[in-house]
Design a protein that fits this description.
With 138 residues, the chain is an alpha/beta fold. The protein is 34% helix and 20% strand.
Length: 138
């Protein structure tokens, strides 16, 4: 089963994301509102949906890089401010602009899972892919 970590400090947004993850039949392993919690939950995750601005500041890019590099997690950023990481974060997939409709989020999660499993998939229309793709999906 695909295990998804939600890195989001707005609890209602995080709960909605978890609901969508579970609707897909995947396992939502937890919500992390900061760097420390994300690293504590990381060993159990396959995919992480990461906001940029969290309880401990603009730590999302750093968290995403660490999740990808140290844990082999497929990272997809979700933010209302995609221009903050327009150049991308090495080892991560891309960024999805908030707000996100449930169907679009489902497509993005399916895409991330396919990439994690090294399968070919078509990204959702609004998912901005980074130029440098993670090495574990090439």
């Amino acid at each position: 089963m695909c295990k998804v970590l939600v890195v989001e400090d707005e609890i209602f947004v995080a709960i909605e994301i978890e609901h969508v993850v579970e609707e897909l039949g995947y396992s939502a392993i937890g919500i992390a509102a900061d760097h420390r919690t994300a690293m504590d939950l990381a060993p159990d995750a396959d995919i992480a949906l990461v906001d940029l601005n969290l309880r401990d500041g603009a730590t999302g890019p750093e968290i995403g890089r660490a999740l990808a590099d140290k844990h082999g997690i497929t990272v997809l950023f979700m933010t209302a401010n995609p221009s903050q990481i327009s150049e991308g974060v090495p080892g991560t997939l891309g960024v999805l602009s908030k707000p996100v409709a449930d169907d679009e989020l489902k497509q993005a999660i399916h895409y991330a899972r396919a990439c994690h499993n090294k399968a070919v998939a078509v990204p959702p229309k609004r998912l901005q892919l980074f130029a440098l793709q993670p090495s574990h999906i090439n």
